[in-house]
Amino acid sequence: MAATADHSTTGANAPAYYVSTPIYYVNDRPHLGHAYTTVAGDVLTRWHRQRGEKVWYLTGTDEHGQKIMRTAEANGVSPQEWCDKLVEEAWKPLWEHLEIANDDFIRTTQQRHTDRVQEFVQDLYDKGEIYKGGYSGPYCVGCEEFKLPAELLDGATEDEKLCSVHKRPVEWLEEENYFFRLSAYGPKLLEFYAENPDFIQPASARNEVLRFVEQDLKDLSISRSTFNWGVPLPWDEKHVLYVWVDALQNYITAAGYGSDPERFAELWPASVHLVGKDILRFHAVIWPAMLMAAGLPLPKRVVANGWLMVGGEKMSKSNLTGIAPTDLTSHFGVDAYRYYFLRAIPFGTDGSFSWEDFTARYTSELANDFGNLASRVAAMVGKYFEGVLPAATAAGEAEQAVADGLRTAAEVADLKIGEELDFAGGIAAIFEFVKQVNGYLTEQEPWKVAKDDSEEGRARLATILYTAAEALRGTAVLLNPLMPSTSEKLWASLGAAEGLGALSAQTVATVADWGRLPAGATVTKGDILFPRLEEKSAS
Ligand code: MSP
Predict the structure, then answer these.
(1) Do 512 and 506 contact (CB within 8 A), yes or no?
(2) Which of 279, 286, 309, 313 to probe ligand 1 with, by most ligand atoms within 8 A of CB?
(3) Do 175 and 134 touch, CB atoms closer than 8 A?
(4) Residues 89, 29: Cα–Cα separation, whole Å
(5) Ligand 1 contact via 316 beta carbon (within 6 Å)
(6) Which domains, ranges and CATH numbers included, belong to the chain?
(7) Tens of pLDDT along 430-457?
(8) Nearest C-alpha to atom 11 of ligand 1 is from which residue?
(9) Distance CA 122, CA 130 (A)
(10) How far apart are alpha carbons 272 and 54 in whole angstroms?
């Protein structure tokens, strides 16, 4: 099992396992693409909590900049009103609905953020890291980013250029503004990447960043004076800070930078910044350079995930391809939703959502392989032992193989989910084990053994059912970070709380200790874990 020592809960200032999502623009409502990263981070942090580590999971919203300002104007409200509405009506409720267990939710319009951001940039200004200059270039409001010529596509007319991400015309921006001396950080960044080969993941993302930084970095324009929806520069209030510079700092302002040194020491540097591949450079180049300039430690890892695609393009609300997560959860349920995207799309690569694929996986993997196993075992303990879990008095090689299978599933899942962020691989290992348990029951045929009334027959039947129930006990713990409600139902059905306490108190380290579920537990059939989809949509 992977080492957990450096995040143990003992010691007042022991470092925490700190994971962040990007903070989302609130110009629109969330779609599947946003939920994908947030669910991944939730599973990762729940996994680490289940290891017994001190964990901190941060998400939030990015509320400044032109994009939000224009959306608010178009809707006839102030930017703050717009943000408040979207945060309260769309973003926070969705995370609650998807059972995201974040420890904090930062909004960049909160004073705890803006005050610290001003201090941070003032410090860089005082250190000579920021200077005044002029800039002109093509700007994409969708990305909130100046574009390089290579990042543009031809538009409808000779003069029109389109952003390659948004496929919409870029605007020509010409301004006097303040610059951060990013160009000075190229060699230091390259040195850092070389010394920390795991800093950027996956390898394709790392290579992209290396290629980018190996060319000459340009200084970064960090202020705007043509609109005012942003954090004012403390030394020149005619300017507001470029939205990305303000946004990146959420990772430290929420962690207590400048306000709570003790907490900050525990939380910073972050363990993992989860980001979409389109915002990798901000996190792997600009953010580290800003931290270097401020003399702060750099995050340990930046992990880029791929995009959910629709018709070969990135799913997005602006292209009208954004599907609301609730359109799927209302049909498949929240846990199946959490399962599907992490199981079906290898983290780091692009993937498409398909209703047919989701339906197929729901039916075969969740309902048939897993749900049926749970209900069959509970039904047999009910039928043959009046719902009281019998002891395994006649265990042999077949039972040992199941116990070994649980150990393997736990070890592989711990490494893949907890360390490598290979969610699909970790989930596959757990479901391999579920298959193994199904195979065990098929081979042992408890329904036939039940016909043998001899003492030996009863002992054999008891052993088979105990083994299957104990396998389900382990499965419930392993799946708890991914499908918390389902795992709770299974825990209740196994009567596990009586002897083992709450599911939330179980740890990854002990999941494979065979025989934890005490004989005598009250096993009940409970709700079907994954009801048939036809019945559900009809109801
Ligand atoms: N506000 C910035 C992030 C600032 S972090 C300091 C931003 N916001 S965003 O709302 O446009 O995007 C947030 C995240 O959602 C990004 O990581 C982006 O990659 C992700 N996704 C948006 N559409 C997506 C898909 N279709 N698929 C997967 N993720 C996608 O950028």
Answers:
(1) no
(2) 279
(3) yes
(4) 9
(5) yes
(6) 355-538 (1.10.730.10)
(7) 999 999 999 999 999 999 999 999 999 9
(8) 25
(9) 9
(10) 14
